[in-house]
Structures are given as structure tokens and as C-alpha cells.
């Protein structure tokens, strides 16, 4: 039995203007802080962006969902504190998206290439020593996407004992 948050989580790129509460944001970040981390470093931090900087990030990324979503959460990691920074940021991100789903909120992984990451770090005053790989817009879903179904499952991708 697959848990319902995994079935229902979809990448949402269209949000209503209804705000996301501070309690919901805290729950989402708490879920990320319960994620496994390399060497149990617990080093992922989060920038929550709701104000004018959101428009500045939109000006860089030019994605309407960045402007529409009432909040962006940017997972941030001090590179000196992790032996596996991309993995630590990624699993924290997935926990956030699953928790957002549990709260009936939408989310999407917006990937940041090096150029975008540098520009977003500048806007948010994230130090050079710290890594960002993505940001997660969170909001109430305007246009729902159907949940996942068993049609997406492929037993052929399971290799038994060897490739
Ligand atoms: C590493 C990674 C990078 C992604 N980058 C983007 C992105 O830059 N923009 C975007 O809209 N979606 C992005 N996505 C979301 C995927 O497009 C999405 O997960 C995929 O289409 C499957 O849809 P679902 O999330 O609704 O199941 C990314 C997902 C991952 C895991």
C-alpha cells in the first residue's frame, strides 16, 4: 500500500492567491528536518520568501508559478558541513513536498542551474560558502493534476540479483 501523500503529490505550477499560514510553513520545514542527512549533519537550513524578494526571484526565473505561489522555500546547505550536499538538499526537498501534499498544498521542484543559483543567492544574501540547488514554491492548488496511478509502475525496471 503506497502512502497517500506519495500517490497525491504532483508538481503544481498554478496557485491561487490564498496565503499559506506560518503554521503550515513550519510544519513543512519540520518535515524536512526529519529527513535523513549524511553523517546525521542536520545542516539543511531554509530561506522562506514571501515578500519583495519573491518578485526579484521571478525576474530571474521568469516562471509564472514563482510569482503566483504565496511562498517560496529555498533549502540551503553549508558545503563545509556535508559530505553529500546535493543528496541532503534533495531529500529535504522531497520531505517538504510530501508534507505540503499532506496539508492539501501544492508544490514543485524548481531546479536552479549554476547561473540561476548564483543570482538567487545574491538576491537572498546567501553566502558563497552555501549551496542551493532548487527552490520549492508552495501554495493552494489552482489547477489540480490527477494523482499517480499503478499505470506508472513498471516491474520491468526491477532487476533481480544483478543487472
Ligand atoms: C531534479 C528535478 C528537477 C526538476 N526541475 C523542474 C523545473 O525546473 N521546473 C519544473 O517545473 N519542474 C521541475 N521538476 C518537476 C518534474 O518535472 C516533475 O516531477 C515530473 O514532471 C513528474 O511530475 P510529478 O512531479 O507531478 O509527478 C523537477 C523534478 C526533479 C526531481
Q: How would you briefly describe this protein structure?
A:
The protein has about 160 residues and is of the alpha+beta class. The chain has helices spanning about 5-10, 20-35, 50-60, 65-70, 85-100, 115-125, and strands at about 45-50, 70-80, 105, 110, 130, 135-140. Flavin mononucleotide binds near residues 10, 108, 109, 110 and 111.
List keywords for this structure.
37% helix, binds flavin mononucleotide, 6 helices, single chain, globular, alpha+beta
How is the CATH topology named? NADH Oxidase
The domain count comes to 1
Q: How many E-type strands?
A: 6
Instruction: Give the quaternary arrangement of the chains.
Output: single chain
Major beta-sheet overview: 6 strands, antiparallel
Based on Cα principal axes, name the global outline: globular
Task: Describe the overall structure.
- By secondary structure, this protein is of the alpha+beta class.
- The chain has one domain (8-144): NADH Oxidase (3-Layer(aba) Sandwich).
- 37% of the residues lie in helices and 16% in strands.
- Strands 1, 2, 3, 4, 5 and 6 form a 6-stranded antiparallel beta sheet that branches.
- The longest helix has 18 residues, at 85-102.
- The mean pLDDT is 98.
- The chain binds flavin mononucleotide.
- The site of flavin mononucleotide (FMN) has 8 residues, from β4.
Amino acid at each position: 500500500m503506497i502512502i497517500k501523500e506519495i500517490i497525491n503529490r504532483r508538481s503544481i505550477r498554478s496557485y491561487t492567491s490564498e496565503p499559506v499560514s506560518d503554521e503550515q510553513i513550519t510544519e513543512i520545514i519540520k518535515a524536512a528536518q526529519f529527513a535523513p542527512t549524511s553523517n546525521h549533519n542536520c545542516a539543511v537550513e531554509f530561506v522562506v520568501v514571501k515578500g519583495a524578494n519573491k518578485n526579484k526571484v521571478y525576474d530571474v526565473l521568469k516562471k509564472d508559478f514563482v510569482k503566483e505561489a504565496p511562498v517560496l522555500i529555498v533549502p540551503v546547505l553549508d558545503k563545509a558541513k556535508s559530505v553529500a550536499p546535493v543528496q541532503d538538499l534533495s531529500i529535504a526537498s522531497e520531505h517538504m513536498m510530501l508534507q505540503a501534499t499532506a496539508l492539501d498544498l501544492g508544490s514543485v521542484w524548481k531546479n536552479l542551474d549554476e547561473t540561476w543559483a548564483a543570482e538567487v543567492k545574491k538576491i537572498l544574501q546567501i553566502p558563497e560558502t552555501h549551496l542551493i540547488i532548487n527552490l520549492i514554491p508552495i501554495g493552494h492548488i489552482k489547477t489540480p493534476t490527477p494523482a499517480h496511478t499503478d499505470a506508472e509502475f513498471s516491474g520491468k525496471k526491477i532487476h533481480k540479483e544483478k543487472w
